[in-house]
Design a protein that fits this description.
The structure is a single chain. The chain is of the alpha/beta class. The chain has one domain: TIM Barrel (Alpha-Beta Barrel), CATH 3.20.20.70. It is built from 11 helices and 10 strands. Helix 4 links the parallel strand 4 and strand 5. Helix 3 packs parallel to helix 4. The longest helix has 21 residues. The termini are far apart.
Length: 279
Amino acid sequence: MDDIPGLDLDSFYPNDYAKANTYVAAMGIEGKRGCDLWCGYCLYPFLGGTCMRLRSPEKIVDEMQMLKTEFGIQLFHFTDSVVNRPVEHFEALCRELINRKLNVAWTGFFREDSLTPQNLALAMKAGLTAIYFSGDALTNQGLTLLNKKLSCEDILDAAKLTAQMGILTMCHFLINLPGESRQSIMESSEMLDRLLEIHGPAGNLGAVIFNHVRLYPRAPMTQRLIRSSDLDPDTDFLYPIYHNPDKFSYVLHEFEARCHSASVFSRLELPPFFQELAS
């Protein structure tokens, strides 16, 4: 990975990205390629390989330093499938950022069961400004179905940790998974309530993002649905195909409505002009 040529700054001028988006990090940084997790819906193992190839922390921070010095970029997003795996590489990257004293901010997707109080504190000292989780299921049944190799307790423990540390947190979940029942929907609802209760006092929940599972060719879940005759093998996947049976299609919107009042954005005060309009 360290032998890959540098950024093509002529074809992809950094300021064209940064000036158009100040809400989230527009500048991506790649710390590794490949993913060995094999989540049931995901194509990363096919697209990037199943063996993680790591860039050296020095090379990663060199790139960030260049983008800050030459273009004034101060907010980055790590495009790794999971930024905090392997743990040793992640912690070495944080230490390199701290030692360089770049004073930049960054975000990334984190794996819940690899997060500890020690490496979260290290990451925050290194500039972590918002943490993204993709737990993807709100029940242990769903986590097993998606082959996440996580438990609901792992997700709750990570939520407690980010709430305790006061780091802005975004959570992603997939709703109306194959095999849902009224019991599993009720369990999902209860799990969501527990997460909102954890983040509520801290006020650190940026958003909970819900989606339905998109079915990709060759993904394990897609192949399973084809084998069970729940999906036509001749389906054209060029256009987005989502798993969203009618019976529980309403659940996503119900969960979204519940989360709106709990997110950090609901706590923001409106400017006076909008307050006058509202009154």
